[in-house]
């Protein structure tokens, strides 16, 4: 949960604002007893939802598991469902999925869009392309060619 707080701050500093974060506490008795520790480990910007033992389990309802990340777009549509190991915040999958859900305009103009979203998302794409350029192998030998590569993100 502290890594989620770090990610929230990082994304906000990059201009990704008005994102809702919700942690769903597990229904089990052990998790119920540790709820206050979970709540204390995040800021007030992250909601910690306590399931009632008598209610239908949220994770079962959502076809997921307790360590999954479900990422919804601003219209409330599920864009990504990341399970282990992709949900570990030490990997880039959650962060990248949030950025994609934030920046894509699948349904056109929307009243929920942030006014400066184009500049923010263009900057995120540029940084991602620069990172890819850094890790691409450099051509060697006398037959090296420069290829102008366009990176398009395809999402399913």
Q: What's the helix and strand layout?
A:
Elements: H1 2-13, E1 21-25, H2 29-33, H3 35-40, E2 46-50, H4 58-61, E3 69-72, E4 78-82, H5 93-103, H6 117-135
Biased composition (Basic residues): 143-156
Organism: Galbula dea
Protein name: SEPP1 protein
Walk me through this protein's architecture.
By secondary structure, the protein is of the alpha+beta class. Helix content is 37%, strand content 12%. It has helices spanning 2-13, 29-33, 35-40, 58-61, 93-103, 117-135; strands at residues 21-25, 46-50, 69-72, 78-82. A two-stranded parallel ribbon has the order 1-2. β3 (69-72) and β4 form a beta hairpin. The longest helix is centred in the last third of the chain and has 19 residues, at 117-135.
Give start-end ranges of low-pLDDT stretches: 139-156
Count every beta strand, where a strand is a DSSP E run of 2 or more residues: 4
CA-atom Rg in angstroms:
19 Å
Number of helices: 6
Entry keywords:
156 residues, alpha+beta, two-stranded antiparallel ribbon, 6 helices, 4 strands, disordered C terminus
Compact description:
37% of the residues lie in helices and 12% in strands.
């Amino acid at each position: 949960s502290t890594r989620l707080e770090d990610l929230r701050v990082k994304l906000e500093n990059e201009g990704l604002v008005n994102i809702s974060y919700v942690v769903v506490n597990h229904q089990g008795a052990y998790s119920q007893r540790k709820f206050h520790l979970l709540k204390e480990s995040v800021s007030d910007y992250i909601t910690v939802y306590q399931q009632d033992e008598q209610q239908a389990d949220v994770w079962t309802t959502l076809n997921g598991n307790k360590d999954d990340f479900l990422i919804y777009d601003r219209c409330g549509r599920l864009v990504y469902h990341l399970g282990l190991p992709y949900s570990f915040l030490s990997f880039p999958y959650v962060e990248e999925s949030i950025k994609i859900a934030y920046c894509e305009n699948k349904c056109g103009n929307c009243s929920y869009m942030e006014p400066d979203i184009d500049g923010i998302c263009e900057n995120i794409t540029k940084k991602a392309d620069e990172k890819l350029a850094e890790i691409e192998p450099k051509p060697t030998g006398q037959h090296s060619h420069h290829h102008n590569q366009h990176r398009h993100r395809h999402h399913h």
